[in-house]
UniProtKB/TrEMBL annotation:
Orn/DAP/Arg decarboxylase 2 N-terminal domain mapped to chain residues: 72-325
Name of the protein described by the UniProt record: Diaminopimelate decarboxylase
Catalytic activity, EC: 4.1.1.20
Pathway(s): Amino-acid biosynthesis; L-lysine biosynthesis via DAP pathway; L-lysine from DL-2,6-diaminopimelate: step 1/1
Protein source organism: Microlunatus parietis
Gene3D superfamilies: Alanine racemase (3.20.20.10), Lyase, Ornithine Decarboxylase, Chain A, domain 1 (2.40.37.10)
Subunit structure of this chain's protein: Homodimer.
Keywords assigned by UniProt, alphabetized: Amino-acid biosynthesis, Decarboxylase, Lyase, Lysine biosynthesis, Pyridoxal phosphate
The organism's taxonomic lineage, starting at the top: Bacteria, Bacillati, Actinomycetota, Actinomycetes, Propionibacteriales
Amino acid sequence: MNASHIAGAIHADAAGPHPRWLDVPEDVNALLPGLWSRHVAKDGQGVLTITGRSVTEIAEEVGTPAYLLDEDDLRARATAFRTAFDGWDVYYAGKSFLCTAVARWVSEEGLGVDVCTGGELAVALRAGVDPARIGLHGNNKSVVELRTAIEAGVGRIIVDSFDEIGRLGELAEQLGATPRVMVRVTTGVEAHTHEYIATAHEDQKFGFSIAGGAALRALRECHDHPRLELIGIHSHIGSQIFEPDGFEVAARRTLRLRAEAAKIIGLELPELDLGGGFGIAYTSEDSPATPGQLADALTKIIQSECEALGATVPHLSIEPGRAISGPTTFALYRVGTVKPVELDGGHTRLYVSIDGGMSDNIRTALYGADYSATLASRRSGAEPVLSRVVGVHCEGGDILVRDEFLPSDIAPGDLLAVPAVGAYCRSMASNYNHVPRPPVIGVRDGRLTTLVRRETIEDLLRLDVG
Ligand SMILES: Cc1ncc(COP(=O)(O)O)c(C=O)c1O
Ligand SMILES: N[C@@H](CCCC[NH3+])C(=O)O
């Protein structure tokens, strides 16, 4: 999703009313570049493959729907951030997708892990992630979560309210510990993304406002507390962001806050985290920056701002989630029904129902996000028709892919694949309509590993103890 998607300009031509960014494909079988993980291709029969394994075979083995995660691709994306951001700490944002295997892989590639609940913390700890390399976020962390984090020796707790500073201080006293804390600030940046996933404007729940003075007060309170070790400032401006200007403004404002704080508390804070939020490609419209481009842009702005302020450059960190997990995974579905629906002007839209839906990918319904899809089980010689991929749920808004051109002969039994679902799909999945959540299958060198098993109706019934 980017700004032009949100604007939703529609183009009506012979193919029907489709968004301006969506072109009628020359070859409806071709994979769009930039949307798939690096080991995905189509074979001579037009069957989608991942590390050489065909999805027809995989569907036989693991069933559908399923998320198929390209392990080497995820590791490579993690490494690309670590090497591009040389000298910085890179924390993988577990909220985008977390299981013990992924926590282990990113640790092995030299990243820390950012968690934002006791549940995510438990996964990272079970995976054996060094607690010193874990950061804990959250605007309403419970006492139990804070206690667990302190006792585990979590490397940094990012505080988000005065209530929490008080709570954490008391706990630290009781436990005789000195947790390392960062203060999450809102920089006032209006990030160019969906309202629900922008987090640096003033009128929302996260962080302490720089403009309103709360950020400075929070820094002072943490610094003055004998049992809190204030290490720095944290800013996260939002998610799925393409334009670098928001990060630049955030970097400037946080560094100015740091300089101001230095005058008051007599200490130049050693660390600064600029959060995550780096956009990825969901459709042909999106062109994300590389980690190298992001690192260059952020490093330049930090250096010039520190020079202008006469300040030392702090130890820096970032927290990418989507940019590491998102492109690594595609969802594999089985088509169940196909229904042409007449539209105004004599056009037709093909409603293609698959065996998943908004319970395994809520992003289309929640943010109006755009996705792409391809017929995965065969090559088709049929012409492309404007289609909408929908799920099994009892909800008109249960749309997975709002607009896509699919071959007109798509039929029940075909496999359909949706790329770039590695972030915020399984992690935001639900059991709406008592639909069990799909498994996450890791694929490496042709081998399949179940990372998260398929949920069953029995799993759901087990919770129903009334
Ligand atoms: C504090 C924090 N850090 C990191 C992230 C990761 O964001 P993204 O997955 O867009 O990189 C988020 C989510 O928006 C966040 O809230
Ligand atoms: N869940 C959002 C991103 C929010 C990230 C968490 N702060 C998405 O799917 O795009």
